[in-house]
Amino acid sequence: MNRQDVSEFNGSEALGRRRLIVLARLAADWYWQLDAQLKYVFCEGTDFNISGNPFQDRKGLHRIEFLTTNFDPHPEIDAHARALENRESIDQVLTLNHDGQTLHVRVVAEPDYDNHGRFLGYLGCSRDITDHVLIEGQLAHLAKHDDLTGVLNRREFERQLGMVCENLDHSDQVRSLCFIDLDKFKNVNDSAGHAAGDQLLRELADLMRKHVRADEYMGRLGGDEFCLLLNADGESAKKIADAIINAIVLYSFSWEGQQFKIGASIGITQLDEDIESVDQLMSIADNACYTAKNNGRNQSYFSNECSVSQRLTLQRLSMIRNALKSNCYRLLMQPIVSADQSDDTGRYEVLLRLECEDGELLEPSDFLPMAKQYDLMRELDYWVVSNSLSALEKLTLNERESTSDSQQQSKIAFNINLSASSLGDRVTLDRILKRIESSSIPHDSLCLEINETTAIRNLSELIQFMDSLSALGVQFALDDFGRGQSSMVDVLKLPIDYLKIDHALITQLLHDPCVRTIVESMHMLSERLGIKTVAEAVEDNATAQMLHTIGIDYIQGFAISSLIDMRDLLQNRSQHVALKEFAYLPNTLV
Q1: β-strands 329-338, 263-270: how paired?
Q2: Contact in structure between 28 and 125 (CB atoms under 8 Å)
Q3: 129, 106 in Cβ contact below 8 A?
Q4: Is the dihedral of CA 480, 481, 482, 485 positive or negative?
Q5: Fold assignment, 315-581
Q6: 149 three-state secondary structure
């Protein structure tokens, strides 16, 4: 190689080096190289002043000695040192602490070898991910903590409680659960507003936290209910509970010139190996809390007993929850027929039942109140909507495939009830909306039934939801009309297609002239508004004939048909055709 070649080579090498440096700066905050003795031979990047040493001054320093000398001891540094000594590939996050400052650095490095396999050192780069780690930590904290008070949220508290219960056999630590319900808290919300109530909860959470040690748990279950998991037996836990009650009773809350005094009732139970579930444990503590309230409030009550009725309740709750996972719910249907046969659509109201292990079907009154109490109604509603749509899709497809070109396809439509829990929850409404939008059925084959009282309570948000689905063609029925206190003025605000007259009026129709006048008025006003009327709970032929005389558009009840299992209908489409025989004909209904 002559002098010119050497010059050109050196120039290209320098250019390549500059390009490498630029690339390194773009790819990471720091780029470095170690020799075979793990000493820095090259360092490039932003200043690294947390240790007091500029980044470029590391040349010649041993990397492990640099880290252990300049930063507080940390297991991650030890693991990094072992990886370097063992010449392993490295992809690791180091936590570096110096004089109270903390830096989180992601390090990626590879051992370097020559063509003969001799170890030359390491090529590595690092990036400051402190902000990312802090944000991840904040998100993880928010996922587990109540955003108002900062204590554990219900889900995380019950998760921790479950882990403790699972390890009771292997632990000598005695623990107790305290269920806390604040007394007179509603007065603050009603008198001073929710902002005052929120501030009071923050202050009371801080007050109660003073009685909880670092290795114990405190959670907010929702509203004004809290729970403590203490490292104490029942007797010691009761002393702590009484101290908390005393502190709350003595506490005076000030808000915009107003003074408020509140109290607390606490139920206590000690964890033992006979506990079958978290639900059972929470139920015992909850019932103990109710006993404390019934005994005069501002006191605690200890109980370790689960009554027979409580055990049955917990078994039923477990069955309700498991049925969602294992699809043990059944859908039955009750036909809704046109009173004058002007509509030959096969209409059905979808009714939910819970199937027990022995095949018995539980009525809604046997499980829906508990589902509501334990916040399961939204999941149940979505299950009903989703499974009803799947069945309707299959029925519609079967009808289409079995109908010849010369025949007119028989239309099938489902009425599905939505609970107050779903109608008051935007997330659930959005889930239902997306499920309906994704369905292949004609959207006017679906009618959602909304309870009158619930509709008026959630009027503004409900109207937005109804308008969104009405634009797709989905229809709506106002259920149980006449039971609540709403008026036709309220009904006018809702985009409804059907008005279902409450069964209490229908059952009195034959015997009370006043009730007949009310039903006639409802139908007359609905007719003028372009709303179809439906009579529920039609149990006999005479009632059906009177409804026909009044002009009611649709009737449903056991006088028309018994309940039909949706599974039977899916297997035998002819049942749908046979329903036309139930359509009302004057003087011939049987």
Answers
A1: unpaired
A2: yes
A3: yes
A4: positive
A5: TIM Barrel (3.20.20)
A6: coil
- φ, ψ of residue 296 to 5 degrees: the values are 130, 0
d(Cα 343, Cα 552) in Å, to the nearest integer?
13
**What contacts 347, CB < 8 A, 6 or more positions away?**
335, 336, 337, 412, 413, 414, 415, 447, 554
pLDDT one-digit tens code per residue, 545-576 = 999 999 999 999 988 888 999 988 888 755 54
Q: Where in the chain is the domain with CATH 3.30.450.20?
A: 3-135
Q: How many CB atoms lie within 10 A of CB 581?
A: 10
* Topology classification of domain 3-135: Beta-Lactamase (3.30.450)
Which alpha helices (DSSP H) does 167-273 contain, by range? 185-192, 194-209, 234-250
Per residue in 87-106, pLDDT (tens digit) is 999 999 998 887 778 888 99
Residue-by-residue DSSP string for 527-560: HHHT-EEEE----SHHHHHHHHHHT-SEE-STTT
56 or 540: whose pLDDT is higher? 540
> d(Cα 429, Cα 378) in Å, to the nearest integer?
9
Burial 309-319 (b: 16+ CB within 10 A, else e): eeeebbebbeb
Compute CA distances 549 → 423, 438, 516, 561, whole Å. Answer: 35, 41, 11, 20
- Global pTM value: 0.55
145-306 folds as Alpha-Beta Plaits (3.30.70)
What's the rounded Cα separation, in Å, for the pair 497 and 531? 5
Q: Does residue 117 come out as left (phi exceeding 0), alpha (psi in the -120 to 50 range) or beta? A: left
Q: Which residues contact 399 (CB under 8 A, 6 or more apart)?
A: 409, 410, 412, 573, 576
Q: How many whole angstroms separate alpha carbon 373 and alpha carbon 370? A: 5
Helical packing angle, 541-550 and 513-529, nearest 10°: 50
Cβ proximity of 579 and 561 under 8 Å: yes
User: How many whole angstroms separate alpha carbon 294 and alpha carbon 422?
Assistant: 32
Query: How far apart are the C-alpha atoms of 88 and 84, rounded to whole Å?
Result: 6
- 377-402 helix and 426-437 helix, angle to the nearest 10 degrees: 10
- Contact at 8 Å (CB) between 323 and 301? no
> In which residue are the tokens 């055990």 written?
311
- CATH 3.30.70.270-classified regions of the chain: 145-306
Dig out the tokens for 345 from the structure: 């659509």
**Look-up of token digits 């773009």:** 26
Tell me: the pLDDT tens digits for 264-312? 999 999 998 777 778 888 888 988 898 888 888 899 999 877 555 556 6
| Separation of alpha carbons 251 and 248, rounded Å | 5
